[in-house]
Amino acid sequence: MDIEIATIGGYEEVGRQMTAVRAGDDIVVFDMGLNLSKVLIHDNVQTERMHSLDLIDMGAIPDDRVMSDLEGDVKAIVPTHGHLDHIGAIGKLAHRYDAPIVASPYTLELVREEINDEGKFAVDNDLVEMDAGETMAIGDRCELEFVNVTHSVIGAINPVLHTPEGAVVYGLDKRVDHTPVVGDPIDMQRFREIGREGDGVLCYIEDCTNANRKGRTPSEAVARRQLKDVMHSMEDWDGGIVATTFASHIARVKSLVEFADDIGREPILLGRSMEKYSGAAERIGAVTFPDNLGMFGHRKSVDRSLERVMNEGKENFLPIVTGHQGEPRAMLTRMGRGETPYDIEDGDKVIFSAGVIPEPTNEGQRYQSEQLLRMQGARIYDDVHVSGHLRQEGHYQMLDALQPQHVIPAHQDMEGFSGYVSLAKSRGYTLGRDLHVTSNGNTIQLVE
Amino acid sequence: MDIEIATIGGYEEVGRQMTAVRAGDDIVVFDMGLNLSKVLIHDNVQTERMHSLDLIDMGAIPDDRVMSDLEGDVKAIVPTHGHLDHIGAIGKLAHRYDAPIVASPYTLELVREEINDEGKFAVDNDLVEMDAGETMAIGDRCELEFVNVTHSVIGAINPVLHTPEGAVVYGLDKRVDHTPVVGDPIDMQRFREIGREGDGVLCYIEDCTNANRKGRTPSEAVARRQLKDVMHSMEDWDGGIVATTFASHIARVKSLVEFADDIGREPILLGRSMEKYSGAAERIGAVTFPDNLGMFGHRKSVDRSLERVMNEGKENFLPIVTGHQGEPRAMLTRMGRGETPYDIEDGDKVIFSAGVIPEPTNEGQRYQSEQLLRMQGARIYDDVHVSGHLRQEGHYQMLDALQPQHVIPAHQDMEGFSGYVSLAKSRGYTLGRDLHVTSNGNTIQLVE
Amino acid sequence: MDIEIATIGGYEEVGRQMTAVRAGDDIVVFDMGLNLSKVLIHDNVQTERMHSLDLIDMGAIPDDRVMSDLEGDVKAIVPTHGHLDHIGAIGKLAHRYDAPIVASPYTLELVREEINDEGKFAVDNDLVEMDAGETMAIGDRCELEFVNVTHSVIGAINPVLHTPEGAVVYGLDKRVDHTPVVGDPIDMQRFREIGREGDGVLCYIEDCTNANRKGRTPSEAVARRQLKDVMHSMEDWDGGIVATTFASHIARVKSLVEFADDIGREPILLGRSMEKYSGAAERIGAVTFPDNLGMFGHRKSVDRSLERVMNEGKENFLPIVTGHQGEPRAMLTRMGRGETPYDIEDGDKVIFSAGVIPEPTNEGQRYQSEQLLRMQGARIYDDVHVSGHLRQEGHYQMLDALQPQHVIPAHQDMEGFSGYVSLAKSRGYTLGRDLHVTSNGNTIQLVE
Amino acid sequence: MDIEIATIGGYEEVGRQMTAVRAGDDIVVFDMGLNLSKVLIHDNVQTERMHSLDLIDMGAIPDDRVMSDLEGDVKAIVPTHGHLDHIGAIGKLAHRYDAPIVASPYTLELVREEINDEGKFAVDNDLVEMDAGETMAIGDRCELEFVNVTHSVIGAINPVLHTPEGAVVYGLDKRVDHTPVVGDPIDMQRFREIGREGDGVLCYIEDCTNANRKGRTPSEAVARRQLKDVMHSMEDWDGGIVATTFASHIARVKSLVEFADDIGREPILLGRSMEKYSGAAERIGAVTFPDNLGMFGHRKSVDRSLERVMNEGKENFLPIVTGHQGEPRAMLTRMGRGETPYDIEDGDKVIFSAGVIPEPTNEGQRYQSEQLLRMQGARIYDDVHVSGHLRQEGHYQMLDALQPQHVIPAHQDMEGFSGYVSLAKSRGYTLGRDLHVTSNGNTIQLVE
């Protein structure tokens, strides 16, 4: 059976991920993501009503025109987890394919919202829920399996397409986490089995986000311990404390909620995304928050909630808000500008439980947000965080477990691939033979 | 009573700390340290037999000639903890003063070794042990108190000289750690009392090592959790694992020893300093290691021990060795060069449970050490570590607790002071009035 | 005679410079500048109609309330050159003092525009023109002298107040440039004389912008040679070339204009500031541009000019525009956004004859501007530039020439001072005695 | 005719360059270089007497065993210029091939010295001199041409192999310099012709050293102007001045010699490499130095020369010495350690007319050398230099001139290639199709 990989998007950038695997006549598509930075660089662009081709021209969504070169039928669209760079183009592209969208429960819940928010296209693909550990048939001879992985959002899986020529493992995005705070540990046992059963692994497509960083990405348990250290150190503070993190990072939000309780404060989730992601997690039963945990997304209810905080005393609350990257219209930035009912006062603490995404525009906005907070007297605790992506030792462990015949680095540009290429070369792979450095819009024929 | 501070060493550098406080006719000296980098830049310098004046000219030990300007008698020499930059000049300078050396048990044990190693001068000052929480009289009207603090070595205290004009708190070196793994948490309660009792705090001398870094220095418990994550992730590895850390960092060594046991390996401490610091800690009962924990310092016994490791199988051991900064003659670097019986092989893990001290010579050596290890196939896990020094939020907490009338930044150069000066200014201090940026060899008259 | 220095603004930042020197009953004020970044961090602030006190609270203009502590009369307000951080607060503060504004011709021309633009206060101080090399009496016993210096704007001088106790030299802003392209070389000869005549130099206030940088700031002739190299290398390009630089940098604009001619292109100056600064320079005869050199500031005339460029062929023109820091509303950024009649096309060259001011917000904007240009196919030539401020070897030369009794670092924050303090210490100065590290709002009594 | 490229060395590093081009049965080898850093990381390795295979195992010289896969005869070995990373393995590898070494006069002179110094192998290949602009036949149907280029050493050429399928242009190492101080400008005219004549360019192999840097590498004329600025600024200094640069950088040495004369000092070249490279340049008539210019390499004659300098007064001389990277045994480092007759005294100037090669070991050594010099009072002028390698706009110009069908980035590792890949992609090349990112030991079949 001939096997071909189309590297559609996310091979020259982080964002707008999309990869197709053709096994004989059957095609599976992994991810349909959005590159948000390509949207934000323009003033006043509203993507909801834009046409796919315009978004492709902007570099915002994958250029899936290469799909017409693949001779076969798409049997499934498989988003690996609920981050926008993996599901954000579903509203624009999925309707072109007569295939179900297959995802883990939490991811599927977010895909559902994505489709609802879409204003241009009607997306009526079937939505099929599949859990980690489960499989489904793809055509007559292939099988799709979800392996549980650990990432900075719950419900992340690595899909595996079992073909007669061996398994194709789509390895975006994960870290090797044995103590992930919410959900199950990464299923390394299953990866090792896949590497050794039948014909083993034909091809492994890998998340190179942190491939230039030495060592091991720490577990979420380490971030939790660090966060506990920070928040417990504030136990005696009788003024305001505000925390911000990735809204989709349910494990982190859960830790914030629990440590708020430890130090005698009522947590409240504020901001549209906070409400969206935590609401979805609770709805599907992936996490249990305290019964009375407030989540507010609309401006009015947010303001009302903050007025209550001011009335009852800031020392009794922990607002958990959006704005960890200094996004100009997010809650925390607006707090910094004095545009909300919450007054930042001298000595108030602001916890950034997030890293700064290393891109100059972003760094500038984050800096500005911190400056505005500081000008009002806030004390900044930053980088209380660990990444959700493998560093080099995780890559090393994955290669050891899977022993793939072919390797394709993804989820970065050439500079980002460089550390991975060195590592793979040291494990015996050869560039251009079984180590495929490629770019958007290419196809790689693995078996002819 | 007139109070005067002499800033003798460590006010233009990290290293060779020495400060004297005169209260009326009584003088207390805090620290007598060594700046090792000023020794190492020269080839083949042996400090043991050198004269004090030559070492002063090299910038290696404090220039204590300014002491002759202070009219009074030295009543005590008080090293705050056992690091070389705080006790390393005692062998060269203490004999000039007719005063006892007063220190916590672990520090005193290390001072004793320092004095024994000294080859030029006979140091026969009395050695007086004093625990955190205890006090001793200084002259008729003053009192010396030790407050327990947490640092990257056990037995660290902040000495406080209570005078009729208020307390002088010597704040080098510490972090605010409530869960320090070994020993007691920092005694913030006592600092708050000192800040509020009697005339409060006249002067606070502060450790500015990390004063340019935002946020809070994590607790040792966070480093321990991170180390656990790293070591447990190696549980299935059946080859060699080697770890290195600061030999004096007893809490870290203890964690390494315990996690070695968790993953079924026998820990062994190797290298002269490893034997020295851990041996001293065990001798005074500050830490309990497993009965059979091997500690070897001399070349021959180290080699014999590594031969045993090679014979019985590397997969059964965790050598904990010196060399975390890539020091050319340390154990780990010699392992990298293949100069020991231990073979580094493809896939072997090396854990650096230490940060890189940011100085180009040092960075070059550390890089070279890693390169040598990598050339043999080693996998590097670096920076499994937290600093022992306060960042900005710790400084903020200390100012809040002590509310000192005067503040003197120390343990850095001007660039290192800059973050502290900004912070102190934001707390209402004024440069040149109650915030004293100074340099080596000055005196500051606080009360006339 | 008692001599006192008030360090009013620009001692904790670059921006809002202001220093007063009192000699007996006579006071001279040096500079009244604006810190533009403190304005821009807020949305939609219009400074023209704002009150001084609000701008002081924002940190945008110097807090001159300390002037009431100085017992004496202001005899002159002396802006040293025409940059906003030195003259931008004149409209808000000068009317409070019954004293003439004394400046070199070009600086005075720009002060005049500053006063005209002021919308809140009527500023009717006398405007007195004084050239480098000239002097004026200040009270009975002092004399003000202007020494010619070289900076990134023409007409820069260092004012010297000769007092019976020695000279006070106000050393902001300059580099040691013996071949400055426009204007005369720095008058090092006169500085050496001042250092040796009479009582020598009592006090030197120094520009520390680049005091942490090793070596020597190159001459403008070096930037010119580099610019020539860049522009001549484009001789064969038959598409668009656009250049941007500091509008006030007349020497650089002149070089751009001349090299445009070398490669057969007609230069045009575009943008409000381009018109303002170059117009002023031509008006006072400081520079001669080709007769037909177009300068357009108003939106309509700019657009008309660019339409002409597009009609007659981009290959015949060199637009020299504002926007070197990526300012969101400047010409070049608007070109990048496609908001002007000028089309950036594949292969077009954009020359940034300017460094990036190292501040995250600014770096973010500059990056975004370059991205927008690149997305249209532009090729970026950046950093064709040398700084206008002394590096360490220039400071060394100035201390050698002046041999001042007292030194006060300025035009930076504490971190920025650190390199200067090291250097001054190595020349024999002592912190707190004759080397005065201070902050905004302090006074230093030099002679009592 | 089938055309194949073997990428033997220098495709994963800077150093040990070697590439073979097979056109039918004829093979031409470009460069045989040494990676010195792989030698220096070991203690006490002497390469002169080492065997090739050991050096290959160390990664020090190219692993040319892939040559046995190429079916054809080597007709010429063509070193492009005289730097060690291009000629340093000739002594170890050339004797294996029955082919002449063809090089420009200066390069050939240095090859001759390389062969003489070789202690293990007898290298008796014919040495054939060929100038830029000349050609020689390779087999029946191909022709080798040398195109003049500009680099940081004189005599650099880009060899072009004209084949029936188009030209293969080997583009290492160069910058686009129209005013190179010594020698002719780069022959861009000829490159444009080659790009357009016959079948055009089949393949271009490019030097990616600076491919991640924006803009244009300045001409040597810019470095010369900057050096003039630095040295003329020292005209009044009556103490010592010492300069260091790359010994092989004849243009820079010439500028140093001339500016020494401008400021009334006698230049002397000191150090083994200084004597070697300048001597060779003079011998072949590539440069004319003043008749009495001293060049001393041997320890004794160097010491004698420095004694003369000390006797006749440092203010009359400019020693131009080795040691620009802080190499531990080079002249300048020994001066810093006080191991030569030359006393560095307070205020003496040291000019580093060289950049720091960005590798941690190297940065550490350079830092240490500067520290030693500073400890004796030296003032450091660093980075008076421009690189010899193309930045992005040079690459853009070369692609424009040559319009090659295939492009192969070289002279870097994957991270270094990344900027070039982006640039080539923006010019329409596709990774894996006509843009070949490869590594050491691969072959690329261009025409079958």
TrEMBL record, chains A, B, C, D:
Coiled coil: none annotated. It is an enzyme of class 3 (hydrolase). Keywords: Cytoplasm, Exonuclease, Hydrolase, Metal-binding, Nuclease, RNA-binding, Zinc. GO terms for molecular function: 5'-3' RNA exonuclease activity; RNA binding; zinc ion binding. Zn(2+) 2 binds at D85, H86, D173, H411. The keyword DNA damage does not apply. InterPro entries: Metallo-B-lactamas, RibonucZ/Hydroxyglut_hydro, RNase_J, RNase_J_2, RNase_J_arc, RNase_J_b_CASP. Its EC number is 3.1.-.-. An RNase that has 5'-3' exonuclease activity. May be involved in RNA degradation. Binds 2 Zn(2+) ions per subunit. It is not clear if Zn(2+) or Mg(2+) is physiologically important. Zn(2+) 1 binds at H81, H83, H151, D173. Belongs to the metallo-beta-lactamase superfamily. RNA-metabolizing metallo-beta-lactamase-like family. Archaeal RNase J subfamily. It holds the Pfam family Lactamase_B. Residues 15-234 form the Metallo-beta-lactamase domain. SUPFAM superfamilies: Metallo-hydrolase/oxidoreductase. Its cofactor is Zn(2+). One of its GO terms (cellular component) is cytoplasm. The keyword Endoplasmic reticulum does not apply. It is found in: Cytoplasm. Substrate binds at H385, V386, S387, G388, H389. Homodimer. GO terms for biological process: RNA catabolic process. This is Ribonuclease J.
